[in-house]
């Protein structure tokens, strides 16, 4: 069913492969790298990596996994808009975006394909935190810069870009405890994200770390909302039916759905922490005075732009931190401002945090999503 | 090659065996045509098309779905659906991440244990269907949830580490395999023996795929039990009246499904070096396996088709998305394009409706 190989070519290729095995691409370098305010190393002892300098313009591929929620769509739109911006347009010869679904074999195949096609950089959201050894090995042999972001890999062999998810969990925990005042027992609802995912795991661990240390008497009820409004609304409604009343809520995502479920169940507003969906921020602004003392952090879809920028910086031969920590955009009910960090006239379903002034990434969320928003309204 | 199990001999004599076989395998031929088209175009436009690297890469990414599609085929021929194939694949994947490591002996035993686990789970499915007298679709929905539960128990979070040499050897060419394990050497290193060179470029997963199809599926199809699987899907009542071993065939069909899914899960673990109880992924594999079965020309009504055809179906499914990496299709349009192509591919099978002389034939 497969075509027969052209034998001489295969043999030559085999020889090339075996001689190339000795070459390993990125070498350990010393910092600081370019634009340290943007490419901030994760920790003080984060190592630096350096690839051999290549001449531009470059071919960049984005290998997305799951597609079908607003965040991913916003991410893809941001990547395309960013590649068109002056300063990037000249440096990128070709941008290809594919989504492989939640299938790790397909994602590995797509990444390997882009390596074989001779792309210079592959920016990806990994569908699993492990299992990419082979692709990383091949990328290193071919001097391809692989940049996982958002859902990163449990390895220090590639350059990665993310917000500190543990810290996001901690921020959520601290906010809730602060807003609860002296209350130190009762029930807290925790709406988790997509199971088996490193982002979900780390936010959960960070949140638990703070709450279990500061207020061990709180009973934490855990449900799964898949970071999706519909799922988290249903799961929250079920939890409310079973448990009656919660003193505070931490919802990793699908936050608008979580709040709506509470409103439907006539549950009183309580201190909350959640994502940066416009709808959630609208609800906080509207009901803060009734007790919805919300915090909204943003895992920004604009991370893709930072990752592309980092990939190009690496291709240009700069030493780069192995793990880049992008500042976490956080707002709470006291700092929300219409038209600045939320948009009352636009649809609920986009993520408000999208611009990173420190990195020169200035694609605001309405710019990307407004076109759709106008239709939905 | 697909059905013909209970083929109609008199008609064959009249119309010529070849013509009959072609007609009976129209769905499969259509699928092969589609695969040649999509994969050919992909290779033509790929900067390194028709090269060993691209073939290896493609073989790696199709293997698991091809095996899960084979797994799905057997219950479908029986006239049922197995909603647990993705889950069993995931379960074995997680099991392998615990067992397939250490010395050669341990690795060998681990692989056997993984295959046995998949097979045993399939047998369990068969028992629920046969002795519990529950519809396969519902029975496997439940057992699939059990398999995912076990997988999550084995791997609450992704991890584990398979043997690195094994991962490298199994996901490359035969030459790399021989080099890794020092086989077929000529003194200067593994894989250098002259007789070995002509086949050294063939990807290992491709060889495995052919081995499983030729070594397991084809012999099974020729046995009494195998033919009974077709008979049950075609007309269970008639099969029963003819005294065919129906219970045995059903048990065997689900056991085969478990085995194939287990092989798929084991390879996925070897490919990724880890185990991951990924629920959305398990669901995606189950759904894609049904799609692959249909594209391969196997009827969901049962009684016709074959596992090799489903492998072609899986190849078509994957080859469609290969092209997204070559051609500039807007990313948000890709699912739409893929859906349209799939619909067109599946519709090819429905073309026979235009050629039937008697409408009653459509109900078969």
Mind explaining what this structure looks like?
Chain A is an alpha/beta fold and 377 residues long. Helices cover 38% and strands 18% of the residues of chain A. Chain A has eleven helices and 16 strands. In chain A, the strands form four sheets. Chain A has a six-stranded mixed sheet with strand order 10-9-11-12-13-16, with helices on both faces. In chain A, strands 5-4-6-7 form a four-stranded parallel sheet, with helices on both faces. A three-stranded antiparallel sheet of chain A has the order 1-3-14. In chain A, helix 9 links the parallel strand 12 (272-274) and strand 13 (294-297). The longest helix of chain A is centred in the middle third of the chain and has 17 residues, at 198-214. The radius of gyration of chain A is 22 Å and the shape is elongated. The N and C termini of chain A lie far apart (51 Å). The longest helix of chain B is centred in the N-terminal third of the chain and has 27 residues, at 104-130. Chain B is mainly alpha-helical. Chain B has 17 helices and no strands. In chain B, helix 6 runs antiparallel to helix 7, helix 8 (164-170) packs antiparallel against helix 9 (174-181) and helix 8 (164-170) crosses helix 13 (246-272). Chain B has one domain (28-326, 333-347). Helix content of chain B is 70%, strand content 0%. Chains A and B meet through helix 1, strand 4, helix 2, strand 5 and helix 3 of A and helix 4, helix 8, helix 9, helix 13 and helix 14 of B.
| CATH-level-4 superfamily name of the largest domain in chain A | Response regulator
What is the overall pLDDT average of chain A? Answer: 86
Outline the low-pLDDT stretches of chain A. 1-22, 371-377
Total count of helical runs of at least 4 residues of chain B: 17
Assembly category = heterodimer
> How many domains of chain B, as an integer?
1
Tell me the series of helices and strands of chain A, N- to C-terminal: HEEEEHEHEHEEHEHEHEHEHEHEEEH
What pair of chains forms the biggest interface?
A-B, 54 and 66 residues
Mean pLDDT of chain B: 89
């Amino acid at each position: 069913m497969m075509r027969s190989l052209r034998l001489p070519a295969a043999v030559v290729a085999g020889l090339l492969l075996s001689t190339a095995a000795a070459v390993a691409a990125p070498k350990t370098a010393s910092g600081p790298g370019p634009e340290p305010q943007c490419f901030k190393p994760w920790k003080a002892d984060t190592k630096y990596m350096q690839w051999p300098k290549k001449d531009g313009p470059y071919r960049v591929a984005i290998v997305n996994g799951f597609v079908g929620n607003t965040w991913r769509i916003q991410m893809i739109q941001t990547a395309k808009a960013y590649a068109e911006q002056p300063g990037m347009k000249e440096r990128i010869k070709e941008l290809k975006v594919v989504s492989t679904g939640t299938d790790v074999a397909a994602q590995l195949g797509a990444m390997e394909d882009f390596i074989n096609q001779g792309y210079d950089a592959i920016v990806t959201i990994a569908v699993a935190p492990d299992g990419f050894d082979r692709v990383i090995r091949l990328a290193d042999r071919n001097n391809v810069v692989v940049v996982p972001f958002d859902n990163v890999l449990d390895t220090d062999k590639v350059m990665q870009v993310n917000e500190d998810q543990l810290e996001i969990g901690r921020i959520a925990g601290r906010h809730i405890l602060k807003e609860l005042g002296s209350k130190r027992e009762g029930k807290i609802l925790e709406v988790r994200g997509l199971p088996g995912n490193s982002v979900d795991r780390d936010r959960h661990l960070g949140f638990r770390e703070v709450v279990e240390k500061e207020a061990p008497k709180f009973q934490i009820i855990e449900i799964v909302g898949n970071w999706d409004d519909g799922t988290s609304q249903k799961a929250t409604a079920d939890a409310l039916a079973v448990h009656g009343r919660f003193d505070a809520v931490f919802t990793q995502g699908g936050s608008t759905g979580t709040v709506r479920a509470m409103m439907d169940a006539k549950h009183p507003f309580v201190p909350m922490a959640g994502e940066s969906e416009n709808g959630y921020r609208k609800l906080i602004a509207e009901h803060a005075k009734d007790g919805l003392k919300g915090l909204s952090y943003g895992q920004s879809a604009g991370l893709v732009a930072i990752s592309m920028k980092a990939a190009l910086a690496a291709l240009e031969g700069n030493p780069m931190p192995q793990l880049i920590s992008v500042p976490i955009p956080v707002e709470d009910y006291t700092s929300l401002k219409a038209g600045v960090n939320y948009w009352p006239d636009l649809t609920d379903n986009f993520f408000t945090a999208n611009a990173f002034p420190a990195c020169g990434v200035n694609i605001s969320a309405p710019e990307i999503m407004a076109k759709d928003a106008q239709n939905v309204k | 090659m697909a059905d013909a199990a209970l083929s109609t001999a008199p008609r064959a004599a009249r119309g010529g065996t070849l013509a009959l076989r072609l007609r009976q395998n129209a769905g499969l031929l259509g699928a092969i045509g589609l695969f040649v088209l999509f994969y050919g175009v992909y290779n033509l436009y790929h900067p390194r098309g028709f090269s060993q690297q691209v073939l290896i890469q493609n073989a790696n990414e199709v293997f698991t779905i091809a095996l899960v599609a084979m797994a799905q085929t057997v219950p479908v021929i029986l006239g049922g659906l197995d909603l647990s194939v993705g889950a069993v694949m995931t379960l074995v994947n997680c099991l392998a991440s615990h067992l397939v490591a250490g010395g050669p002996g341990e690795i060998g035993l681990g692989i056997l244990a993984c295959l046995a686990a998949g097979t045993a789970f399939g047998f369990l499915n068969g028992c629920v269907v046969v002795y519990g007298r529950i519809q396969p679709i519902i029975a496997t929905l439940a057992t699939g949830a059990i398999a995912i539960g076990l997988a999550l128990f084995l791997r609450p979070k992704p991890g584990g580490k398979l043997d690195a040499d094994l991962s490298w050897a199994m996901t490359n060419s035969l030459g790399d395999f021989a080099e890794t394990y020092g086989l077929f050497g000529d003194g200067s290193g593994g894989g250098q023996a002259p007789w070995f060179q002509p086949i050294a470029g063939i990807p290992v997963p491709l060889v495995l795929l052919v081995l499983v199809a030729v070594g397991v599926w084809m012999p099974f199809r020729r046995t009494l039990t195998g033919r009974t699987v077709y008979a049950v899907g075609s007309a269970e009542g008639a099969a029963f009246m003819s005294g065919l071993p129906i219970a045995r065939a059903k048990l065997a069909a689900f056991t085969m499904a478990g085995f194939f899914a287990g092989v798929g899960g084991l390879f996925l673990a070897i490919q990724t070096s880890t185990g991951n109880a990924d629920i959305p992924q398990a669901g995606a594999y189950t759904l894609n396996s049904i799609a692959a079965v249909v594209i391969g020309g196997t009827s969901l009504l049962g009684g016709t088709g074959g596992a090799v055809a489903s492998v072609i179906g899986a190849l078509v499914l994957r080859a469609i998305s290969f092209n997204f990496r070559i051609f500039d299709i807007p990313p948000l349009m890709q699912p739409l394009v893929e859906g349209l192509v799939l619909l067109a591919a599946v519709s090819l099978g429905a073309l026979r409706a235009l050629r039937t002389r008697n409408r009653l034939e459509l109900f078969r």
